[in-house]
Amino acid sequence: MNLRNAERIALITGSNRGIGLEAARQLARRGFHAIITSRDEAKGERAAESIRQDGGKVTFLPLDVSSSESIRNAAGRFGTIADRLDVLINNAGVYPDAGVTVLTVPRDRLAQTLQTNTFGPLEVTQAFLPHLRKSDGARVINVSSGYGQLEGLSADEPSYCLSKLALNGLTIMLGQALRADHIAVNSMCPGWVRTDMGGPGATLSVEQGADTAVWLADDAPHNLTGKFFRNRREISW
Ligand SMILES: NC(=O)c1ccc[n+]([C@@H]2O[C@H](COP(=O)([O-])OP(=O)(O)OC[C@H]3O[C@@H](n4cnc5c(N)ncnc54)[C@H](OP(=O)(O)O)[C@@H]3O)[C@@H](O)[C@H]2O)c1
Predict the structure, then answer these.
(1) How many domains does the chain have?
(2) Does the N-terminal or the C-terminal CB of the chain have fewer CB atoms within 10 Å?
(3) 160 is catalytic
(4) How far is the CA of 16 from the centre of ligand 1 (A)?
(5) Does residue 160 form part of some domain?
(6) pLDDT band with cut points at 50, 70 and 90 for residue 3
C-alpha cells in the first residue's frame, strides 16, 4: 500500500470498535484515507474490511498505545507507506474503575489507566510528529470525557477521571508547543455513547458520539487549538 498520492490521511487509535471505528468510517466517507489501528490484528483487519466494504479507502496498522515499542513500530511502518499524516485522533481508552473509589484505588490501577489514556496519546503524538509536520495544517484530536472536566470529577471513577483530566492538560501543552508548527490540538467529549464502554443505556448513538471528533478533524476553523469541545461547541476545562 502506498499512500503518497492520497488526498488526506487520518489515523485513529483504538479504531477496531466503538467511537474510533465510527470516526474512521465517517472520515472515509468524507474522502480521507483512514488508518485503522488496533492492538489486536484480527479485530483491526476486520474493522478495516468493514470500511472497505462501505467503499472507503483504509489501511490497518497494529498499535497498542500502552507499549512504547508498538508505538515506535507503528510510526516507522507508517513512514514507509505515507508521506504525511493530516489527522491523528487519540481515541483508544479504558474505563477500569468498577469496584473502587478514590479512597481504595490501587496505585497500579492508576498507573495502568494513565499508561493507556494519557501517556499513550502523548507518546503517539510524539512518535507521529515528523509525519504530522509534513502536513499542511495537521490536526490532533484527543478523545477526552466530561469526567475529565474540573466540575465533572467523580470520586467513584478515580483512575479514569485523573487520566482524562491529565489528557486535557496535555491538550493545552501540546497546543502551545505545536502552534509554531501550525498543528491544531484539541480535546473533545463524545457525550454518553452506546458502545461497549458506554453500555446499552447510553443516550447517544455511535454516529452522534463520533461527530465532534470528525468535525474537529475536517470542518473546524484551524485556528481553534488548545480547547475542549462537545457537540461542536467549546466547553470549560
Ligand atoms: N462511550 C462513552 O460514553 C464515552 C464517553 C466519554 C468518553 N469516551 C471516550 O471515547 C473513547 C472511545 O471509547 P468507546 O466508547 O468507543 O469505548 P470502547 O467501545 O470500549 O472502545 C475502546 C477502544 O479502545 C481500544 N483500546 C483500549 N486499550 C488500548 C490500547 N492499549 N491500545 C490500543 N487500543 C486500545 C479498544 O481496543 P480492544 O478492542 O483491543 O479492547 C477499543 O478499540 C475512549 O477514549 C473513551 O474514554 C467514551
Answers:
(1) 1
(2) N
(3) yes
(4) 9
(5) yes
(6) confident
